[in-house]
Amino acid sequence: MNGLLCYCRQGFEPELAAELSERAASAGLAGYARTQRNDGYVLFVCEEAAALDAALPWRELIFARQKLRLIEELRALDPSDRITPMLAALPRDARYGELWVEHPDSDAAKPLAGLARSFGNALRPALRKAGLLSAKEDTRLPRLHVVFVDGDHAFLAQSAPADASPWPLGIPRLKLLPDAPSRSALKLEEAILTLMTPAQREQHLRAGMTAADLGAAPGGWTWVLTRQHLHVTSVDNGPLRQHVLDTGLVQHLRADGFRWQPAQALDWMVCDMVEQPRRVAERMATWFREGWCRQAIFNLKLPMKKRWDETRLCLELFAEQAGKPLQVTAKQLYHDREEITVLATPRQRG
Do β-strands 231-235 and 250-253 pair in parallel, antiparallel, or remain unpaired? Predict the structure, then answer.
């Protein structure tokens, strides 16, 4: 089988299928999506799999938590011996740097977690004996994925570590610390980890930088920024948790975050306000057009229908109205729900 296997949030399979179909068509590649709602994954079948893989970088896919290149689909696996057909399906000259045995993040597939763990322990030595798996993790080699969708139905796939999520199932396992003001803090923490490379975090998140948090109460995103040692203006008519104010890095302004503007340019603006996505996109664009911030992370709350169309429209609207060249990356993060998170930074020259 040729094509891609991509994980997504359960219920967003149509959005991911539409995104893959449109991006493949834009790259001049013929193919079709195969999925069912609530499966937690989408297959995109394409004979030009290598070209498709190159044309759709993981970081540029909005609704894909993970991107894998298909090797084989195996049905009617014998529970007493699943290893033999898998070894037979792998190319003899293949060599992998790591094995991940997974299942989609869906209600139907979650009971397969135990099988995935135990099967991985059995498959690793068999792969090494066959010369297919390195003795130690090697990120220079492709990663092998075995994805169980049922006890007798699995996909074999591979990923390039540099062009894939670094977490099994595409899910960063973040812990909500006791002093986090709200669970929304996890969204900004995940955005910083997922949307920014280590080099970008070092360059763009430095102690002493200035930021605004629009719609800040009760202070989850402000708290994350103070942990990066940024000075934050938190704008909200609602209260912030006292321990956030006690950091000495926060100025709380009781104002409408959607209307407020800074007196001077800030390094960062973040926004997780509940508002129509087009209105948010326009307001975020105003911040860049007026020079009020240099970079931003914001959420767009999506409607219940035509979510891919709305996503594309909002991102195009933001890019058109921002008035300057920006590098824009958007993802539906694990800690997002009916929304996507957008990172906008100055476009690097050259």
Answer: parallel
